[in-house]
Write a structure and sequence with these properties.
- This protein has 17 helices and no strands.
- With 329 residues, the chain is mostly helical.
- It has one domain.
- It is globular.
Length: 329
């Protein structure tokens, strides 16, 4: 894709990201514990819904690039905040929790979607994997295996984006009432919030310890996408269908590599600070782009059943995930 085609939408998302970073640095935002990522998605949603269909078509390519590529670049750079010493400190309970969350959410999504709501298999599967693993990225990766219709993919992405966005505002509000320490809350958020960037936003609203822990737990959960896709591809082959291309979440593997680098190499303080500032801007720009595409009119057009399934899975992640966190982690 040519760079000039990306510039209009990318510049718009970058402006919103810069505005969010600047606003988050004000004393008022600091008192409210509002992160740049939360402000970025709010600004994006406000502009996207205010302009609606009048948004220039020329911005679409750049906005999509920010949602995908800048988000993944930001996640990779986030590895500079984390070392394997921190990962070891979290303990094996977090991995067990991730496995329990992913397995139970996939099973519930397919059972409720097919048995209770009468949804077709692809819609139920795409919504369930988006809720269970890593939001829109999991939906798109799964679509490459099952080759679902574009409309079903759009429904699943919109529903998980909606409820993942609600996580950003809900989790910091309930944190004082959960009886969890910041590290424990990070485990809970990483195991239950939909998107990687949303996990970063939730954790950042509580503090660095919660944010770092949440991202480690979340990226472990993202890595579970790989065995899920291989298992799904094998199941599709046994059903007699053609095996689709399996999309490996390279950004999660790169994140692991950056964590390893950060564990053994000490960057100069000024360089490390500049890289972390760049990381915050990349993630804020990606969140703004995500907000630009979260249109209330589109969500209303999806119909009630896919949204109901996503709502029920959202409730399971918030409530059931909290119970599993207290037991396992």
């Amino acid at each position: 894709m040519s760079i000039p085609r990306l510039l209009p939408g990318l510049f718009l998302a970058l402006l919103l990201g810069l505005a969010a970073v600047g606003a988050a640095a004000t004393p008022y935002a600091a008192r409210l514990q509002v992160s740049a990522l939360t402000l970025a998605i709010v600004l994006g949603m406000a502009l996207g819904n205010a302009v609606g269909a009048r948004m220039p078509a020329s911005s679409a390519a750049g906005v999509a690039f920010a949602q995908r590529s800048l988000l993944r670049a930001g996640v990779v750079l986030y590895g500079l905040r984390i070392s394997y010493q921190q990962i070891a400190a979290i303990g094996p309970g977090a991995l067990v929790l991730d496995l329990a969350i992913v397995g139970s959410t996939l099973a519930l999504g397919l059972w409720i979607g097919r048995r209770w709501l009468g949804l077709d298999r692809d819609t139920a599967l795409l919504t369930a994997c988006g809720s269970a693993i890593c939001g829109a990225a999991a939906v798109l990766a799964t679509e490459r295996v099952v080759r679902a219709e574009p409309g079903k993919v759009a429904i699943a992405i919109a529903s998980v984006v909606l409820f993942g966005t609600l996580d950003i505002f809900l989790y910091p509000l309930v944190f004082p009432h959960l009886g969890l320490a910041p590290l424990e809350f990070g485990v809970y958020a990483g195991a239950t919030v939909h998107e990687v960037a949303q996990v970063v936003a939730v954790g950042s609203a509580i503090g660095p310890q919660a944010a770092d822990t949440a991202v480690v737990v979340k990226l472990t959960r993202v890595l579970l996408l790989v065995p899920f896709l291989f298992a799904l591809g094998g199941w599709e082959a046994r059903r007699g269908g053609e095996r689709g291309a399996i999309s490996v979440p390279w950004f999660a593997l790169a994140f692991v590599g950056v964590c390893a680098f950060n564990s053994v190499v000490a960057l100069p303080a000024a360089l490390r600070a500049a890289m972390l500032d760049l990381d915050t801007l990349l993630l804020a720009t990606a969140m703004a782009a995500l907000g630009l595409e979260t249109r209330f009119a589109r969500l209303r057009a999806l119909g009630p059943k896919p949204l109901l399934l996503a709502l029920l899975l959202f409730g399971w992640l918030v409530v059931g995930g909290y119970g599993l966190t207290r037991v396992l982690a």
